[in-house]
Design brief:
about 230 residues, alpha+beta, six-stranded mixed sheet, three-stranded antiparallel sheet, 3 helices, about 20% helix, binds 2-acetamido-2-deoxy-beta-D-glucopyranose, binds copper (II) ion
């Protein structure tokens, strides 16, 4: 039974990791891939507030570097922004035009740029999703360096079922999330994902999305596991 038990455990872990609203895969996010789903709606960064005096950060090439995401919703609009503010309270610059992802899974923009004047400085890159259940946030602490990074195709891919398109009109939900004012886009009722406990059930059911399938598979495996172990 042991191999079966560990297989089930591994599968459950995998499935629970896949249940975050979205993951920021590159640059390396503060929460990694173990995202606190309940806090992903808290601006500016989800569960973790960056601290540039402590967080190390990975290199980000200002002439173009890749931002890789994994979405657990059938659709979302993406805002990619950056700041040099020490605790990411504001002064966000938009680093890439707002883009819509349609389809679940991986989405990667290979050439996101940052101001040349940021070279040699540490900062925060924040990705905001305007998803069916509200605004969602993840951040990475980065060291801005000169030059361009050409990602290998492995880490920067779009899932085959995913399509993207640049927004033809601005997403009003993003309007207050960029600009020079050092104000925190605080988590409000409207920007918090509605009842995140239902994220994998009701919304997915309404949209016929993958997460419901995952929940059913998970439930079936729990039942199977209980019966077998
Ligand atoms: C906002 O960021 C810019 C660099 O992009 C910097 O020049 C400016 O001083 C910052 N403003 C504040 C209020 O921190
Ligand atoms: C993924 O799709 C977006 C939107 O169409 C596009 O800008 C981007 O270059 C694509 N990424 C890759 C790795 O092809
Ligand atoms: Cu969600």
């Amino acid at each position: 039974m042991a191999p079966l038990r560990s297989l089930i455990t591994a599968t459950l872990l995998l499935l629970s990791a896949a249940n975050a609203h979205f993951l920021l895969l590159n640059p390396q996010s503060l929460e990694g891939q173990d995202v606190d789903e309940d806090k992903e709606g808290n601006g500016p960064c989800g569960a973790i507030t960056p601290d540039l005096t402590k967080d190390k950060g990975t290199d980000f090439y200002v002439d173009g570097d890749f931002v890789s995401l994994q979405l657990s919703h059938p659709q979302a609009n993406w805002l990619i922004r950056g700041t040099l503010d020490s605790v990411a309270t504001g002064n966000w610059s938009q680093l890439f035009p707002a883009v819509k992802q349609s389809g679940l899974g991986k989405f990667c923009e290979p050439t996101v740029t940052a101001p040349a004047s940021w070279v040699g400085k540490k900062g925060v890159i924040s990705v905001v999703a305007d998803a069916p259940d509200g605004l969602l946030f993840q951040c990475a602490v980065v060291n801005f360096v000169s030059g361009k990074n050409t990602p290998a195709s492995g880490p920067c891919t779009n899932a085959t079922s995913v399509t993207g398109s640049f927004l033809t009109s601005a997403d009003p939900a993003f309007a207050t999330l960029v600009g020079t004012a050092a104000s925190t886009p605080s988590s409000t009722a409207s920007s918090t994902p509605s009842a995140s406990a239902t994220h994998n059930a009701a919304p997915a059911f309404a949209q016929g999305g993958l997460p419901l399938g995952i929940m059913l598979v998970t439930a079936a495996m729990v039942l199977a596991g209980t019966a077998l172990l």
